[in-house]
Specification:
mainly alpha; Ammonium transporter fold; globular
């Protein structure tokens, strides 16, 4: 009992001692420090989670844009004659491959690298070490470059050399597209583009992607000329019907589907105003189709499936620049006017005897120009600002001069060296047979060609 009493007295003295109070204070401070560290770790975890979500969103948007290549391939294949179906598919399949590689090696650096001059990037060529977010951004921009380069494919269909077209695809993604894109979207790693400095608005690429692609398409068809029989001797246009309207319509649906990734994905953040962007994208397209049908009815013209699809596409192109900075009411107006632009542009090109198989120049070139101007006119909170409209018009004009000017030079040099225009004999026989030794519909076309020759060319 005495020992127990002594121990209790010792413990009582310890509790009352200064040493115990010091130890207790140290323990409380240590606990507070651990709690603070835990709170900091929790904050970092939330930040990392948000970054991972943004990366996933960017990749998903890029995948949707990639899927648009299938839409282009189907639409263009259905728009040409059966004897050229394989050739069109081949161009769409491989221009993405050639262009994607060129963009990785050089184009990404020119577009997104440090841009102190305002005209082009000077680093991050052929990168090997980037953050996860930067890799996602590169992937997304690769898909945009592939979209820009493939626009010319359909316009030049049925009479363009595959090798010449492939060389052009490489140069477009290597230089022409990324340099202009750097003026608007450049400077990701430092600096900024000169058009951005002026206040130029092009959220997802009405001009950067679509007008550049459309003006390059115009340059190409000016160099190679129209298809055999497209125009009568007096200049009257003759219809050369596509072989499969089902493929064309399916391609239109796929492009429309992918466009939600094209526009909403351009937020590069899951926290962006993706709902508004998606709605604006949709209503602009549907209003363009309705507008086209009303105009056709008023003019007592047939309501064509091909033109209905193209109307939806020009509506989508037109809203791309301002989809994040306007309201659905103005998106409807932009789409409705876009169909008028489409009708006027296609008629003007035919009068000039310019043969565009899929109306790519009207849809992407003129549609992108209208959409870029509309982004300045219908800017939420500052409508009809003439100063902003002037900057938008400058961007449209610069894009036309850059892409059409360089495009004419590029295609002419390719035609003089590699050859751009297919021979008349190859055009008559069909590029499936002459360029690729494959036939899109062998059960129906086998009597037209020498099967032995096809077999030998496969070995």
């Amino acid at each position: 009992m005495k020992k127990l009493s002594f121990r209790l007295d010792a413990i009582s003295v310890l509790f009352k001692s200064s040493l115990f109070k010091i130890l207790l204070m140290i323990g409380l401070l240590a606990g507070a420090t651990n709690s603070a560290n835990s709170a900091e770790e929790a904050t970092l975890t939330v930040t990392q989670l948000l970054e991972y979500q943004n990366i996933a969103w960017i990749i998903w948007g890029g995948v949707l844009v990639f899927f648009m290549q299938a839409g282009f391939a189907l639409l263009e294949s259905g728009s040409v004659r059966a004897k050229n179906a394989v050739n069109v598919m081949m161009k769409n399949y491989t221009d993405m491959c050639i262009g994607g590689l060129a963009f990785y090696l050089v184009g990404f650096g020119l577009m997104m690298g440090t841009n102190d001059s305002g005209f082009f990037g000077t680093d991050h060529f052929m990168p090997v070490e980037l953050s996860n977010l930067d890799w996602a951004l590169m992937f997304f921009q690769m898909m945009f470059a592939a979209t820009a380069v493939t626009i010319a494919s359909g316009a030049m269909a049925e009479r363009v050399s595959f090798i010449g077209y492939a060389v052009a695809a490489c140069l477009i993604c290597l230089l022409i597209y990324p340099v202009f894109a750097s003026w608007v979207w450049g400077g990701y790693f430092g600096g900024t583009g000169w058009l951005t400095e002026l206040g130029f608005i092009d959220f997802a690429g009405s001009t950067v992607v679509h007008s550049i692609g459309g003006w390059l398409a115009l340059a190409g068809i000016l160099v190679i000329g129209p298809r055999l029989g497209r125009f009568a001797p007096d200049g009257t246009p003759r219809l050369i019907a596509g072989h499969n309207m089902t493929l064309l319509a399916l391609g239109g649906f796929i492009l429309w589907f992918g466009w939600f990734g094209f526009n909403a994905g351009s937020t590069l953040s899951i926290t962006g105003n993706i709902g508004l962007i998606a709605v604006n994208t949709f209503v602009a397209a549907v209003s363009a189709v309705v507008s086209y049908m009303i105009i056709s009815r008023v003019l007592d013209k047939a309501i064509l499936l091909s033109d209905s699809v193209n109307a939806s596409l020009i509506g989508l192109v037109s809203i791309t620049a301002g989809c994040a900075t306007t309201t659905p009411v103005f998106a409807i107006i932009i789409g409705a006017i876009a169909s008028v632009v489409y009708i006027l542009a296609t008629q003007a090109l035919l009068k000039l005897k310019i043969d565009d198989v899929v109306s790519a120049v009207a849809v992407h070139g003129f549609g992108g120009a209208w959409g870029t101007l509309a982004a300045g006119l219908f800017y939420s909170g500052d409508l009809f600002n003439l100063s902003r409209l002037g900057v938008q018009a400058l961007g449209v004009g610069v894009a036309l001069a850059w892409a059409l000017g360089l495009g004419l030079v590029m295609y002419k040099l390719i035609d003089m060296t590699f050859g751009l225009k297919a021979s008349r004999l190859h055009e008559q026989r069909g590029l499936d047979y002459t360029e690729h030794a494959e036939i899109g519909y062998p059960e129906f076309q086998k009597q037209m060609f020498d099967s032995k020759s096809l077999t030998e060319r496969h070995l």
